[in-house]
Amino acid sequence: xxxxxxxxxxxxxxTAAGATTAQAANICFSFxxxxxxxxxxxHKAITTTLTEMGHNVLERNAxxxxxxxxxxxxxCIAQGVDGVIMIPQDGESANTIIRESQNSDVPIxxxxxxxxxxxxxxxxxxxxxxxxxxxxxFVLQQAxxxxxxxxxxxxxxxxxxxxxxxxxxxxxxFEAAVAKYPDRFNVIEVASEWDAATALAxxxxxxxxxxxxxxxFTSSDFLFPTIRSVLEPRGMWKKxxxxxxxxxxxxxxxxxxxxxxxxxxxxxxxxxxxxxxAEASVNAIVQAVEAGETDPNEIIFDPGFTLTSANxxxxxxxxxxxxxxxxxxxxx
Amino acid sequence: MNELxxxxxxxxxxxxxxxxxxxxxxxxQGTVTGxxxxxGAGKSTLMxxxxxxxxxxxxxxFWRGQPYQPRDAADAIKAGIGFIHQELNLFTNxxxxxxLYIDGFPRRMGLIDWKAITQRTREILARLDLDFDPMIQVGxxxxxxxxxxxxxxxxxxxxxLLIFDEPTTSLTPRETERLFATIDGLKxxxxxxxxxxxxxxxxxxxxxxxxxxRDGKLVEQGPADQFTIPLMIRSMIGRDMGGxxxxxxxxxxxxxxxxxxxxxxxxxxxxxxxxxxxGEIVGLFGLxxxxxxxxxxxxxGLDPFQSGRISIEGKSPEQGPRxxxxxxxxxxxxxxxxxxxxxxxSIAENxxxxxxxxxxxxxxxxxxxxxxxERTEQSRTELSIKAANIQEQPAKAxxxxxxxxxxxxxxxxxxxxxxxxDEPTRGVDVGxxxxxxxxxDKIAAxxxxxxxxxxxxxxxxxxxxxxxVMNRGEVTGEIAREQFDRERILAMAxxxxxx
Amino acid sequence: MxxxxxxxxxxxxxxxxxxxxxxxxxxxxxxxIVLAPFLPVLIAPANAVNIMSNMWPLLIVAIxxxxxxxxxxxxxxxxxxxxxxxxxxxxLITLAVDPVTFMRTPLWGLILTEQGGPLAGVTGGVLLALVxxxxxxxxxxxxxxxSVALFDLPPFMVTLVTMMTLSAFALWLxxxxxxxxxxxxxxxxxxxxxxxxxxxxxxxxxxxxRQVYSFVTFPMVxxxxxxxxxxIILNRTVFGARVLAIGMNRKAAVISGIPxxxxxxxxxxxxxxxxxxxxxxYSARLEAGRPTLGGGxxxxxxxxxxVIGGTSLFGGKAKIIWTFFGVLFYVLMSSxxxxxxxxxxxxxxxxxxxxxxxxxxxVFRTWLKRERLQ
Lengths: 332, 499, 374
Fold this sequence. Notes:
Largest interface: A-C, 51 and 53 residues
Largest sheet of chain C: 2 strands, antiparallel
Oligomer: heterotrimer
Mean pLDDT of chain C: 87
Number of strands of chain C: 2
Structural class of chain B: alpha/beta
Strand content of chain B: 25-35%
Strand content of chain C: under 5%
Low-confidence stretches of chain C: none
Low-confidence stretches of chain B: none
C-alpha cells in the first residue's frame, strides 16, 4: 500500500518539479496570527518581498496554536519547501520547531520574536535595548533642556510583561539611558504586563502619587491611548511647545505613534525597522537555499532608529506605522 | 344535512407500501364520527392527510364542496380543522393564553396586547366551563385540563371540524366524563367531530357514525347504532375473538411475595398496606393523582418513603431499584417511551438490558454475543414479537403492543417473581391487548405475583384476583374477585365526591 | 423487469456502502483518489507520516470524548485537563527553568528552582511524574463525573466551569510561562520511532535531504493500543452496553437497574485520562509543559472529528471505529486544505462546510437506515 503510494507520489512530484525553474524557491511562511498591526505589516513586508523576488510563498496561519504551528511547518516540509520563515508563538516552541526543520535539512529563519535558545537557526531580531535607549535618551534631553541645572526630575517608565525577553531588553535600554545622567532622574516604574487595563490602573495610581511628571517612556506604542486617557483629564496632555507638555517616548513605531508625532503630542518613538528585518529574513533564507546550506545559524540585529518630530519629514516612509497610516489604516 | 368533508378514493403509499388505499367517505356537519382500527390500520396516515402533514399519493378531498389540498398544517388550520392530539401538543412552559396565541400575538402599538389576549382567552375558557386563570402555566394543569386547553386552542382558531386522537388515554374517568360533556356541547353548537379511540365503549357513547379501518382499507361504515362492541372488534381484527380477556388459568397461592406495611411518604402516600401472593394478580385502581404510580415507584425503590416496611419474600431489600431487581422484582412503567424502552436501540438490545451482567464473561465483562442472540430469539418466540429482525430493528419500529411485549420480555429474562405493571395496555390495540393479558395470566400461572395498575376498570375486572382502590394516596378499599362490583369500586375511587 | 431489478440492487449496494461502519473510511479513500492528482503531496510518504503523527494524540483525546458523547454528555474540560496535567508533569521533571520567568510564579522555591523540578534527574522520575499526571486527571474526572451523576448538573455546565477554572489555574501556576528542558526519556514519548523507513534521496527540492521517515512511533503504538481497548470496552462489554443504554434513555436505564451514577463517573474519568495521555504526547512532541495546551479551537477539532465519524451528540450512538475514521478524515482534510495554499480564513470556511456536509450525510444515513427497516 505504502509502496504504491510512494511510487505514485514520486511520479507526480517529478512531473510537478519539471515545471518550476531552478531559481524560484518555495518558501514556507508560518506566522502565529495577524491580530496586531505590527504583525500585519510584517506579514505584508515578507510576502511582498518574496513574491517580488520571484519566489513562491506558502502561507500558514497557526492562530496562536503552537501545536498547529508545528504541524503546519511539518506539512510544509513534507510538501518539499526549500526554506521556512517563522514568526513563532513563543521562545520555547521556536526551538522545537527549529530543530524539527533543521533535522529535515530545511533552513529556517525566525522573524522578530527570538527563540529561548538563540544558538540555532537564523534569528532576525530588533535590538530592543539599543532602540529603547536611543528613544529614551532623546526625551530625557528634551526634559533636561527646560529644567534647572540641579533639579531632580521624575521619569516614568511603563514596562511590559517581564516574562517576555523583548520587554526586559526595553526596560534595560531605558535604564541605560537614565544612567547617562546620574542623579538627575527619579525613576517611577509602572507595570503593564502588556495589558491596557493593567497599565491604566497602575498609571493612574502613579500619577496620583506623583503629580509632577517630567518625562515618560512606554515600552510599547500600543499604550499611548491609555496614557492619553490618564493625562488628558489632568491637563497634562499637551502639544510640544505648549505649557505643561511632558516629553513622551515609545517603542514599536505603530500608526498611532506616527499620528501622535505628527500632531506634536509625542516626541519620539523607537522604531523596529520592520522593512530591514523583512528584507534580512528573506535574504538569509534565499542565500541559504542558493548555497545549499541546510542549517545556517546566525543572529541578525535590527539596529532600528528613533523617529522624532525633527526627522519625521525624511524618515516617515521607513517607519511601518507611518506607511500603514498613509494607507488609511487608522480609518478602517 | 350539509356535507362538511368528503374524501374520494384517497390513497397513500409509503415507498410502495400502501398505508391507505381508496378511502371514500363523507362527514356531515354537526355530527360525531368515530374512526376505529387497530394500530397500523392507517388512522394516523389518514389524519396526516387531513391535517396537511402527509401528501396523498392519490384521490381527492373536498372541504365544504370545494377541492381541498392542504400543503401544510397551517392550511388545515386556516380551513378550520383543529387537532386534539394523543400526545399533547402544548408548550408546558407557557401559559394557557400564550399557547392559544402561539401562532400570532395580537399587537397594539407594536407591543403584544396582553389585555386583549387574556380577555379573549377567558371568554373561550368560559365557553368550555373552565375557570382557571388564562395566565396559568400549562405545566401546572392536569392531563385532563390540558386536553381541554387543546380544545380551547382549536376553538380559538375557529375550527369547525375537531379531530380527537385518543383523547382519553391519560384522563381519569371523571375527566373523561367532563370531556364527553364538552364534546356534546361542541356538537350542539354545530361543530363537527372526528373521534378516534381504542376505547370502543367511548366510541359507542359518542359517535353518530362509525368508520372502521383495517390494513389501510375502509372495511365498514354506518350509523353507530348498527355497531355493537363485539361487531366493532370483529370488523377491526377481521375475525371473531372469544371475549376480551383470557380465562384466568390458576388460583392464587397462600404464601405472600410482597408485603408492604403502613407505607407513608407525606404528600404522596399515607399508611398504605398491601400484600401480593404467589400466583396472584392484584389490580390497583384509582383516578389520576390517586397515588397509584407513586406507590409503584416506592415499591420498586425509585422513590423514598418516610415510614413503613417493605419485604419481599420475607426479606427487606436495600434502597434503590438494583436491590429490588436482585430481590426478584420487575417494573413495567406507565411511560413506555420515556422510561421503558430505548427507542433507537434494537429490540434485542432492549431485551438484554436488565440482565446484561448475565451475558458478560470474565473480569472485563466481555459480552457473549452468541448467547445474547440465542436468548433474545427465545424471547421473541415466547412473546411472539412481530418483527422481521429483532437483532437489527429498532424498538421504535414496533407497534405499541409489540413494544409492550419487549418491555415485559426484558424483565422476564431475569425470571422475576413479582411484576408491577403500570398501565400495561395503554396505547395498545385490541388484538395485542389480549396477548398481553395472556402474558400476565401466564406469569401468575407460573407462580409469580402481579400488581396491575390501570385506569381501565374493565381490564382489572377481567384479569385481577383482587382489586385494591386508592384515592389521594390512601387505600380506600379492597375487593375480591367474587365480590367485584363496578359501582362499588368507582364509589371507593371517588370517595370524597360520593361522601 | 430485469432492468428494474439491477437498478434496485445497485441502489441497495450503494446503501450498503452508506450504512457501513467503514463509510467514513471509504470517504477518506475517495477523498485521496479525487485530490491526489491535483495535490500529489497528499500521498507523499513525508505527508503520510505527518498525517499519522497529527492523528494519534487527537485520536486518543477523541476516544475519551466519544465515551462522554455516548452517554449523551459532552466534556469541554479536556483541553484544560491537557494543560494542567502537562504543567504538573513538566514542573516535576524539568531539568532547568528560566528564573526571570518563573521567579514570579507560585511554584518558585516551592517546586521549581533554577535546578528544575524535584524529580529532575531522579531515576524513575519520569514514571513518577506520569503517575502524578494520571492521578490529577483521575481527580478531575471524578469531580466532573460526580457533579453530573450525583447533583444532576448538566455536563455542559460542569465541564465548562472545570475548563475555565483549570485553564486559569494552569496559567496562574506558570504565569503563562512554558516549562521547557524536559528530560529525553519524556520527549522520546512524542517522537521516538520504533520503525523508520528509508525512501532514498529526494530530487525535487533544491536542497538534497535525508528521506528517513518514522512510521511506527510511540504515539502510534499508544494510540492503537488505546483505540483497541476502547473499542472492546465500548462495543463488546457489559460496561459499554450500559454506557450506550444511558445515552439512549437514562430513565429506562435507571429503572432497568443499571448503576447509572457509577458509570457516568467512570466515563468522565476515562475522558480526563484520555485527555491527559493525548496532552502528554503533545507536550512530549513540543518538548515543554504548556499552560495554553489544548486551548483555542482544539476541543472543537476533537468534537468535530468524533461527530464526523458518526457518533451522536445526543448520546446512545457511538463506536470507536467511527471515531478512528472520523479523526483520520479530519486530519486528512486539514492536511489537504493546508496543501491547497488557502488562507486561514478560507480553510476555516471550507472546514465548516465539510463538517456540515458530514452532518448532513449522517442525517441521510439515519434516514436510509430507517427506510430500510420499514
